[in-house]
Amino acid sequence: RENFIAIIDIVAATPLDFMVQHFFVTLLGQSEFGARFHAALFGILSLLIFYWIGKKFFSTQVALIGMFLFAIYPLHHQYSQEGRNYSLFCFLALSCYYLLCRALESKRLSWWFLYTLTTILLLYTNYFGGVLLISQAAFLIALKFGIVNRSLKVPLYRKWGPTFCLFLLCA
User: Fold this and answer.
1) C-alpha closest to that of 47 among 76, 67, 74
2) Backbone φ, ψ for residue 81 (5° rounding)
3) CB atoms within 10 A of CB 84
4) What is the mean pLDDT of the chain?
5) What does the alpha-carbon distance between residue 154 and residue 161 come to, in Å, rounded to a whole number?
6) Cα-Cα-Cα-Cα dihedral of 109, 113, 87, 105, to 10°?
7) Are 66 and 54 in contact (CB under 8 A)?
8) DSSP string covering 27-62
């Protein structure tokens, strides 16, 4: 309880990363490895989600190339080594986009539940998650009003995949 109150007192601090870091430090010990392990883990998981998004919208080859480029991207590499919330934020942001895509495609309630849960976790990780939600809302509005072309007779994600990727880049 005291730790949680201390977290709230820190300006612009969000609680989820502190809880995740506390869990890994408790599990792995109070060392540099224990403090940074969660960042490396979420950095690696971000690569997996990045691959899934690339494969869904384009092809396996494009997904592999994109994942490789993302893996050697200096900023992602640096964030995956820091004991901060950036790699967790990246993982949750990519997960939100992937789950939104799956929810729109399948229209099953389970995908919408996972998307909502991930979005809540994202907002508890970094307040810039709100900007991501604005970009997703803009995409959904564009989809609703037909700004995104739906006239092609291909699966839904192929119709709006490039536009979706544009909104992903804007976030």
Assistant:
1) 67
2) -105, -15
3) 16
4) 76
5) 11
6) 20
7) yes
8) HH-SSHHHHHHHHHHHHHHHHHHHHHHHHHHS-HHH
Q: Are 43 and 90 contacting, i.e. CB atoms less than 8 angstroms apart?
A: yes
Q: Which residue has the tokens 């490039």?
A: 162
**In one letter, which amino acid is 62?**
V
Task: Give the residue among 49, 44, 51 at the shortest CA–CA distance from 66.
Answer: 51
The whole-number pLDDT of residue 145 equals 77
How far apart, in whole angstroms, are the C-alpha atoms of residue 64 and residue 70? 10
What is the SS3 assignment for 130-147? HHHHHHHHHHHHHHHCCC
Give the whole-angstrom CA distance, residue 29 versus residue 157. Answer: 44
**Whether 88 contacts 17, CB under 8 Å:** yes
Q: How far apart are CA 34 and CA 61, in angstroms?
A: 35
CA distances from 122 to 91, 97, 133, 152 (A): 9, 11, 10, 33
User: Whose CA is closest to 132, among 95, 102, 161?
Assistant: 95
In this structure, are residues 79 and 125 in contact, taking their beta carbons and an 8 Å threshold? no
Q: Six-digit token pair at 107?
A: 């229209």
Q: Over the stretch 9-59, which tens digit does the pLDDT of each residue have? A: 554 557 777 777 778 778 877 877 777 788 888 888 998 999 998 888 888
